[in-house]
Amino acid sequence: MVLSLSSLFFLLELTFGLLSGSLALLADAGHMLSDISALGLALLASWLAQKPAQPHRTYGNHRVEALAALGQGLLLLVTSALILREAFGRFWDSSKIEVPGETVLLVATAGLSVNILCLFLLRREHSHNLNLRGAWLHILSDMLGSIGAILAGIAILWFEAFWVDTVASVFISILILTSAFYLLRDVIDVLMEAAPRNLDVREIEKSLKTIESVSDVHDLHVWTIGSRRIALSCHIVVLSEEVSSSRLLEKAYETLGRNYGISHATIQIETQSFSHHSPQSYCNG
To answer: What DSSP line would sit under 49-64, residue for residue?
Structure first.
């Protein structure tokens, strides 16, 4: 529902932006396009998550959303650059462009109403769904863009201050750049297999070491496969060979799942004598 509403209003805002020549409306339409992309990615991720993994893609298609988000972030950068270039030109020649204030005010007010409705529809889901939380934040920032366009419409309608339309477009472009920056940062983290920013790897290591009979933890890696799927691999060194491996693994998986939301973990249990060796040492030998 939110994707349909956003798509319909994007077409409406884009059309009136082109007809009226309002750069603020065009910038807000570009921002709404980022909302549509975020919502589309959320749906895509949900659909792909249900598809089984293939033999040559053992993790499935979870990284597709990262590649799509990368394209979205680059598109946002291009959109923002085009708006800023046009705004820079209008600053030198703003007197020749008379934007109809009524159109800007009405369309921007309608956009604000659509954003509020979308936030209302997602109010329950975004708090426990990381996928939808990103889309919810996109819509929230788009609300600020609509407010900027409304202020531009009021300034044009009441004071004939046409330059405010250009200033509002710059403000919205900054919002788009901010969204693009955080989106690209998160995408790069996923592609580089960095640990999720909300997890402290050192804290995870300490938690595993508190498990009974564990003397050390090494080769600990935490990364993101896709939305809401965090993976971990590590080697756990035990004090004695008599330690129950099944009981130890049960405790470790319980700690990782309950405290850190890690659903995919691969743990190798080693004794203290074996922990000094590694596959690499055997390969080199």
So the answer is: HTSPPBTTBTTTTTTH
Distance CA 161, CA 165 (A): 8
For residue 29, which of 103, 100, 83 has the smallest C-alpha distance?
Answer: 83
Strand partners, 100: none
**Tokens read off for 138:** 């996109």
CATH class of 201-284: alpha beta
Residue the block writes with tokens 């403000």: 171
Paired sense of beta strands 214-226 and 229-238, if any:
antiparallel
- The answer to whether the predicted template modeling score (pTM) of the entire model surpasses 0.90 is no
Model confidence pLDDT, tens digit, residues 141-158: 788 888 888 998 999 889
Q: Tokens representing 116?
A: 């509020």
| Interval 122-147 mean pLDDT | 71
Fold of 2-191: Alpha-lytic protease prodomain-like (1.20.1510)
